[in-house]
Design goal:
The chain is an alpha+beta fold and 243 residues long. The protein has five helices and six strands, in the order αβββαββαβαα. The chain has two domains: 2-62, 2-Layer Sandwich (Aldehyde Oxidoreductase, domain 4); 93-237, Aldehyde Oxidoreductase, domain 4 (2-Layer Sandwich). A hairpin with a 2-residue loop joins strand 1 (32-35) and strand 2 (38-41). Helix 1 crosses helix 2 and helix 3 crosses helix 4.
């Protein structure tokens, strides 16, 4: 959402720049374009003015260059979670493969390696995209293994502190190979898609399937705590099935 709002704000600033440059160059604003910090004639790019000079002229005569942009994504429809809101006009896609080790004596899960492939549309800032993908992945790891809110019979939270509410630290993060696959989405700004919590979507299932492959037990509730894994392994050894 913010990307589309920023794009609209930038377009407003650009329109003001072109208007001021048109006055300086005595042409119609429609005849001008702005690129690489230069305002120039579309038909003759050699006729140009530096952006800084145009911005200075605008400030002297009209004040600050200010742009405003708003954006509300369309409602998605349907009854699934998030449908009434439509938090993004263009959702990303991801696939993950994970290697884990499970200690059958304690149920402890050690994440060894993760491979993530992410399609977030047109990449505008590669560093920020990779950071968002990594952050979403680590958030998913926390939800999959460590984080759990516990309640008593009256609905009060029992672990409302960071000493009992476990979260992954840097020591819990596995080796990560991440690949960004570019595409173009008409609904996003410059073809970009969201890249936030979407990168955490496959993680929980990936961890559960890796544990299943390693141990033969399927745990269908989160988090996959060490105790839960240990009890499932004991149940399997006692002939209670894979769950």
């Amino acid at each position: 959402m913010s990307g589309s709002a920023v794009k609209r704000a930038g377009e407003m600033v650009k329109a003001q720049v072109l208007e001021t440059a048109a006055e300086m160059m005595e042409v119609d604003p429609a005849e001008l374009e702005c690129r690489d910090a230069v305002v120039f004639l579309k038909k003759n790019p050699s006729v140009a003015e530096p952006f800084g000079k145009v911005a200075r002229e605008h400030f002297v005569k009209k004040g600050l260059l200010v742009g405003h942009g708003t954006y509300a994504p369309p409602k998605l429809g349907g009854k699934f979670k998030g449908a009434p809101v439509g938090t993004s006009p263009a959702y990303s896609f991801a696939a993950q493969v994970m290697e884990v080790e499970v200690d059958e004596e304690t149920g402890e899960i050690t994440l060894k390696h993760v491979w993530d492939v992410h399609d977030s549309g047109t990449v505008i800032h590669p560093g920020l995209v990779e950071g968002q993908v990594h952050g979403g992945l680590f958030m998913g790891i926390g939800e999959a293994i460590f984080e759990e809110v516990r309640f008593d019979e009256n609905g009060r939270v029992l672990n409302a502190n960071l000493s009992e509410y476990r979260m992954p630290t840097a020591l819990d993060i596995p080796m990560l190979d991440s690949v960004i696959v570019e595409s173009y989405d008409q609904a996003g700004p410059y073809g970009a898609k969201e890249v936030g919590e979407g990168s955490s979507v496959p993680t929980e299932g990936c961890v559960a399937n890796a544990v299943l492959d390693a141990t033969g037990v399927l745990i269908d509730s989160l988090p996959l705590s060490y105790e839960k894994v240990w009890r499932a392994l004991k149940n399997r050894k006692a002939g209670g099935g894979i769950k």
